[in-house]
Each structure stands twice: as structure tokens, then as C-alpha cells.
Amino acid sequence: MSDLDPIDPNTALELYLADKEGTLSRSSIVSHRSRISAFVDWLDDRGITNLNELTGRLIKEYQLDGRKAGDWAPSTEKSMMTTTRVFVRWCESIEAVESGLSERVQSPSLTGDEGVRDTHLDAERAQAVLHNLDRFHYCSRAHVTLAVMWHTMARCGAVRSLDLGDYDATEQSLRFEHRPETGTPLKNKRSSERHVAVSESLAELLDDWIAHKRPDVTDEYGREPLISTKNGRVAGSTIAGYAYKYTQPCRYNRRCPLDRNPQTCEATDHNKVSSCPESVSPHPFRRGSITHWLRSDVPSPVVSDRADVSERVIEKHYDERTDQEKMEQRRGYLEDV
Q: Is 0.70 surpassed by the pTM of this model?
């Protein structure tokens, strides 16, 4: 202990985050701050003002307290303790805690459905987000991007891969094509290639975007992106920013469930929209859309083909329907048999 340099937990947290700025994504930085802050707050409640005092026993007590409080599902406990271990290992590197302490941080293994994420954007909220964009930001790049994402169930990378020529206004369809050599690979490579029909309302939005708003540019490969910026193809991080920004409740229904003042809340700042606890990343758009289509009685094989995901993966990772909902839908098919 005598060889350690004294440091309070909060100072260590800020130094850790500053050190990780160049190696972690913005969303990861937000997640690490949230998880490690919980640990730092727990230490503060117990009067631990110097990380030199941290022991394996204290860390285990923190883990058990989180589990007993009922706040941690198995997957939450794993992510909390894994991030805590990373933080403790970093603290070893600056001689704030004893060497080897991180090896005593235990992160549980997950089995079966314990590792399945349940974050999604339900249809009602998605429609509120899109209605707000339609009313106040019609035909903006964010409007077009999120509308395409919701209505096609496509991944973020697939949406940004679309070229101007991939939209067929006459057939009202979009073509997703695997083009790794020019910077836009698809998740499942050639098997991800498909044509997707779009609704009349989405087709009208795309027509207006192309006619009036789309920057007429090419990317670094000479391709014409469908969703373009003045500098070329829209970036994945930009798409993520749109999702985080416009799913903030204060933007689409003018109320904050956390009673924050949007005028002073830092989460409304352009570079901090992902820090809002109520906003979501692009992936929940896909999850929520898949569930919406399933709840609308669209057969699973059809959803599978349109969303480019197997029925098995849909069942395990995307389908948010309850067993009761599934039973009632099956009943509808069997009533006339």
C-alpha cells in the first residue's frame, strides 16, 4: 500500500475517461461513465475517498449489493462488473490500487436468454418520432434516414450503403447491394442483397428528398449516395446521432420524463445527445420495426427476408411479442380451419 499514489475515486474516473477518449467511441464513453459512476457513488456512500483502500472484498460487496437491490438483471451485472474490472485494471497502471486487484473482479457468465438485449423502440414511440420529423423537419436528412431505417428494418450500414440508383421511383423499391470494394459492405455479404418495396408515403418522401434537398455529390469512389451530405456519403456516426437526437422525448413530445429543463440539459447539446438516458441508438429502430411487423401479422419468413435476418435470430433477439400475443395471432390463422 505504501507504494501507491493517493487519489480519490471521482478524480480517477475523470482521468480514466480522458485517457479513453481516443480509443473508445462516444457511445462507449457514455456507457463507461454511467457504469463506473455507479461504482464511484457506492464507494462514496461508504466513505472511501482514496482508491488505495480498495480491496477485492469491497468490490465483491458492491457486486452483491447491486444484485440484492434487484436493479441488476444478469446481463446488467455482467456489463457493470466487466467495466468495473477494466477501470480497476487501469487504476493499477497509475498505481492507484494494488497490482493484480483487477483479477479478483468477477464478472458472471451468461447462458441461454440471459444475454439477450431487450432494448427496442415501440411502434407508438417510433411513429411519434417520425411524425415530429414530418411536421417540423420534413425532408431533412435526419427525416429521410430514420424513415428509411424504420420502414425497411435495415441495419445502419445498409441504409448508408444505398446509392441514388438503388431507388426505383416507378417500382417504389430500394435495392441493397454488397459493395465492399467501394466502402459499403453488407452484414451478410452477398446473401444480404435484396430488393425491398417501400410504402407510398416513404416513396413520396424520397422523391421530395431527391428533387429538393439531396446534395448532388459523389463519394470518394465516384458513387452517388442516396443519403448524401455536402461532403459525400452520410457517416454511420451521423446516423447514430440522428437516432439519439430525435428519440429524446423533449424533442418529439415536448416533455422530459426526467423533469430536466431542455434549455439547460447538456444532453441536448449537439455532441452529447447520446448521453440522454431516454434516447436510443439506431439498433432499437430495427428491433422495434421487426416487432411491429410481426405484431401486424406479417409472417416471420417475410420479415426474415425483408430485414436480412434468420427466423431463428428473430425469435431469440428481435421478437418482443409476448407468448399471449403469439397465441392470439395463431388463433386468427386457425379459426377457419
A: no
